[in-house]
Automatic annotation (TrEMBL), chains A, B:
This is Transcriptional regulator, TetR family. Pfam families: TetR_C_24, TetR_N. Residues 14-74 form the HTH tetR-type domain. Residues 37-56 bind DNA.
Length: 217, 217
């Protein structure tokens, strides 16, 4: 399944690139960064290592591109919601639904984002990878601050209740991101089944933020 | 700081063992299992590798003992609360406070528990380590089911509101465990500061579970 979007008419090389990203993201999700080799990715693709090196210079480069693509997809998904003319809690709720769906549908990419943030915190990387990760983690902070802004507004509007904004933001992302750890696709799962999971995750986070008028599933 | 408890009068070897566990847990927390060597642990202890091998047969053994000790401490901490004669939501709330405090105070051990579960899910281990991890993950499931039981009772008693018990349980542990990822000790932090963080984490999880009568901080 090609997860990252490729528009009709985009060059064949872009499609080839996305196929490699998908395969590599799946490998990183299953085994983690350290235990994954370019050989593993090639095996999964039934391709040569040469085909991968034609597009990506190293395992670290591949990892960074997956991180970036994961965040690009998240930003694109919430973009139409940011400027809606609605109460902040309504905007937050729509963004949260969109985010949780992203965590489920593109979870291999999102696991790489998670692992990248961990690697950044641990600092266990080369100087080159460190500067790449610094930039990516900053990109992710910008995304986080879009949610933070709506949470702060919702609290000002009397629709959310929490003490410290930073702690609330951490808790919220842990809750909304959690399906990357526990979600497992089931045979014959319908779109309705996934909606149902998304609803429960958002309801939990919204309740956690003291959200008013919450409709429990 | 010796985190795992050693009773007064316990043999010196037990104290030596706990010092090694503390140092190794700190190394695993900072770098992760794969990137940590027995040499790193010895360096942190300013001891020889021989001293470590006197007590533990391998890095995998050390890791497993930290996992077990982390869970032993968690079980011991909630034990007095399990059989209180109070509404389930009150018992759950006390257990949740205790659990979050554990996550903060013994977080190096709890990060190992987290990484052990990840390694178990990924299956990227030797057969011997796999059987050890199977047992430890089962031990952790027993702990999880203590909370699950109180959540189910609280819902029956009309004091919590959530749809699927398994999803609610996953969300709850992600929320309560989250300080192992974002909590950083600050200079001159008081017991009151930590209480305040614990209160906010528990309030989030309790709100997420649709807990009634919640006192927001």
């Amino acid at each position: 399944m090609v997860l990252a979007e490729v528009g009709v008419g985009e060059p064949v090389t872009e499609r080839a690139r996305v196929e490699i990203l998908d395969a590599a993201a799946a490998c990183f999700m299953e085994r983690g960064y350290a235990a994954t080799s370019i050989d593993d990715v090639a095996r999964r693709l039934r391709a040569t290592k040469g085909r991968i090196y034609h597009h990506f210079s190293s395992k670290a480069d591949l990892f960074a591109q997956i991180f970036r693509t994961g965040m690009d997809m998240n930003f694109a998904a919430i973009e139409p919601l940011r400027s809606l003319d609605e109460p902040a809690i309504a905007i937050w709720t729509k963004m949260a639904h969109t985010h949780v769906r992203q965590m489920i549908v593109t979870r291999a990419y999102q696991r790489v984002v998670w692992e990248g943030v961990e690697m950044h915190l641990r600092g266990a990387t080369t100087p080159e990878q460190r500067s790449q990760l610094n930039e990516l983690v900053e990109y992710r902070s910008q995304y986080s601050s879009v949610f933070r802004l709506q949470m702060a507004r919702a609290r000002d509007q009397g629709d959310m209740h929490f003490a410290d904004l930073s702690i609330a933001n951490q808790m919220m992302f842990m809750a909304l991101n959690s399906p990357i750890f526990w979600y497992k696709p089931r045979p014959r799962e319908s779109a309705q089944d996934i909606d149902n999971i998304v609803d429960q995750v958002v309801a939990f986070a919204r309740g956690g933020l003291g959200g008013k008028d919450r409709e429990r599933p």
